[in-house]
C-alpha cells in the first residue's frame, strides 16, 4: 500500500508510538488526524506540529467513538487508514487487596474494547474506499505474558485474536481492507511503563522508537499481516518450542528484576 495522499486516523496520537507514527505519516504527505482524551493536550500537540489535525475522543466510550465516526464521515470521508494505537498499562499485584475491580479492567476498556469500538465504527467508511488498511498495535506481550501486568498482557493477546478474526471476515466479504498487527517490544522512549527504563533488561528487550516506526511503515507498504519488531521476533520464535518453560522463566525473571528496582 502506498503511504502518500492517504487520510489516516491515529488513536492515542498525542504521545509515544502514536505520535511518532503520526509525525512520520504527515512527513510522507498524508492527511493525519490524531485522537486523545484531553482536548488541551490535543490543542498543544497540533499547535506544535502544524499540519496535524486533532479530535478529542475517548476510545473506551462507545458514544464518544460514535461521535468520532460521524465527524470523520462528514469532514474526512476519504479516510482509508485507521491506526489503532490507544493504550494504557498498569502494573499491579493481584494479591494486593487494595486493587479495585475498576483498576483491574481499565486496560480492557481502552486497549481491547477501544480497538474493537473504533474498528467497528469505521468499517463502513473504510469499505467505501478503493483500498484501505487497519493497523492494530498489540505487543510482544501478545505472545508471552508479563507477570506484573496481567491485564495488559491479556488485552494485547485479545487484540491479536481480534485482528485475525477481523482479517478473515474482511476476506469473506471481499473488501479491499488490509489488516496489519504491529507488535512492538518495550519502547524505551514511551511513558507506558518505567519498569525497564534502565540497565540490562532495557538493553536486552527494548527497541528505539525510530526503528519501530521504520519497521511499521515498511510493513504497511508491503501489506504484511504482522510485524514482529525487535525482541518480539525472537520471543515469538522461541515460544514455538517450549512455551510453558519460557513463560515461567520469563515471568519469574521479570518479577525478580522488578523486586530489585
TrEMBL record:
<comment type="similarity">
    <text>Belongs to the short-chain dehydrogenases/reductases (SDR) family.</text>
</comment>
<keyword id="KW-0560">Oxidoreductase</keyword>
<dbReference type="GO" id="GO:0018498">
    <property type="term" value="F:2,3-dihydroxy-2,3-dihydro-phenylpropionate dehydrogenase activity"/>
</dbReference>
<feature type="domain" description="Ketoreductase">
    <location>
        <begin position="6"/>
        <end position="189"/>
    </location>
</feature>
<dbReference type="Pfam" id="PF00106">
    <property type="entry name" value="adh_short"/>
</dbReference>
<dbReference type="InterPro" id="IPR057326">
    <property type="entry name" value="KR_dom"/>
</dbReference>
<dbReference type="InterPro" id="IPR020904">
    <property type="entry name" value="Sc_DH/Rdtase_CS"/>
</dbReference>
<dbReference type="InterPro" id="IPR002347">
    <property type="entry name" value="SDR_fam"/>
</dbReference>
<protein>
    <submittedName>
        <fullName>3-phenylpropionate-dihydrodiol/cinnamic acid-dihydrodiol dehydrogenase</fullName>
        <ecNumber>1.3.1.87</ecNumber>
    </submittedName>
</protein>
<dbReference type="InterPro" id="IPR036291">
    <property type="entry name" value="NAD(P)-bd_dom_sf"/>
</dbReference>
Amino acid at each position: 500500500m502506498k503511504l502518500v495522499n492517504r487520510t489516516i486516523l491515529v488513536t492515542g496520537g498525542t504521545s509515544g508510538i502514536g505520535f511518532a507514527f503520526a509525525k512520520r505519516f504527515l512527513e510522507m504527505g498524508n492527511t493525519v488526524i490524531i485522537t486523545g482524551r484531553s482536548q488541551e493536550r490535543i490543542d498543544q500537540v497540533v499547535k506544535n506540529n502544524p499540519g496535524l489535525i486533532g479530535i478529542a475522543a475517548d476510545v473506551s466510550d462507545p458514544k464518544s467513538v460514535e461521535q468520532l465516526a460521524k465527524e470523520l464521515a462528514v469532514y474526512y470521508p476519504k479516510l482509508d487508514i485507521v491506526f489503532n494505537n490507544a493504550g494504557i498499562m498498569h502494573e499491579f499485584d493481584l494479591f494486593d487487596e487494595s486493587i479495585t475491580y475498576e483498576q483491574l479492567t481499565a486496560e480492557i476498556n481502552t486497549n481491547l474494547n477501544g480497538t474493537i469500538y473504533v474498528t467497528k465504527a469505521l468499517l463502513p467508511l473504510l469499505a467505501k474506499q478503493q483500498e484501505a488498511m487497519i493497523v492494530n498495535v498489540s505487543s510482544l506481550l501478545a505472545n508471552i505474558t508479563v507477570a506484573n501486568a496481567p491485564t495488559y498482557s491479556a488485552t494485547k493477546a485479545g487484540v491479536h485474536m481480534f485482528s485475525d478474526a477481523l482479517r478473515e471476515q474482511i476476506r469473506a466479504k471481499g473488501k479491499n481492507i488490509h489488516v496489519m498487527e504491529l507488535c512492538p517490544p518495550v519502547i524505551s522512549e514511551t511513558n507506558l511503563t518505567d519498569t525497564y527504563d534502565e540497565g540490562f533488561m532495557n538493553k536486552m528487550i527494548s527497541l528505539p522508537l525510530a526503528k519501530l516506526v521504520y519497521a511499521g511503515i515498511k510493513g504497511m507498504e508491503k501489506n504484511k499481516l504482522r510485524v514482529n519488531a525487535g525482541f518480539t521476533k525472537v520471543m515469538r520464535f522461541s515460544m514455538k518450542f517450549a512455551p510453558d518453560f519460557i513463560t515461567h522463566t520469563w515471568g519469574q525473571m521479570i518479577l525478580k528484576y522488578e523486586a530489585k528496582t
